[in-house]
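Appendix B. Chain record.
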Amino acid sequence: MRREELASLSGTSVEYIVRLEQGRSAHPSQQVLLAISRALDLSETEREHLFVLAGLAAPDEGRIPRAVTPGVTRIVDRLSGTTAAIVCTLAWEMVYWNPLWAALLGDPTATEPRSRNYVWRHFTDALTTVGHTPSALAEFEHDIVCDLRRAVDRFPAETELAQMCDELARRNSRFADLWDCGDVAAHHSMRKTVNHPRAGTIAVDCDVLAVPESELYVVVFTAEPGSEDARRLSTLSVTASTEAQAKP
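Structure tokens predicted for this chain:
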């Protein structure tokens, strides 16, 4: 395989591949090594040897990465005054969020484990307070189901996740159709409307950000500065902070 082909398949640059070959990149990340091993179609033994050469322990690809780095938690926490933010895995499991997210859409810790999966919540009508235009809804559903399908295919040890998907396919025909489409997700910014029981209707922009060298997404809801939506979001943030401080 030529360097150009390897770089393209692994999502790296030709220059980086050359640096690896020449030993000028001494600390490649796990994510880069995994991408290269997949591009080269290495066996499990060959992949483990590649990680040994790089001085790293080979990860268990059978399980979805769920660890949130301290840097990401600090970012999400500091956004809370103006931005509702949550960290999700590749399978859209909610693993970390800030107080404003909990105040706007409900605290995931108050739900059963399966309901902490954003796809499950959406297709079982647990997110009825969030509204989309028809086109935005179709795009949103397509992308999150494609992500979920990719996660199940990549991590065969996640049997509970696979069982959840089977149940969703039986319960929801829209999910079943998207599950079988075989497309790749392409997340874009979109407009959503949150109908909050206390704060009222809040229009927000939703952006999905990929964490570098990670299998995590950070989803952020923001309102246009100076708008009535921003004021309501800010008021909700203050209320959430006050309630959090009042808890023993």
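Further analysis of this model is presented in Appendix C.
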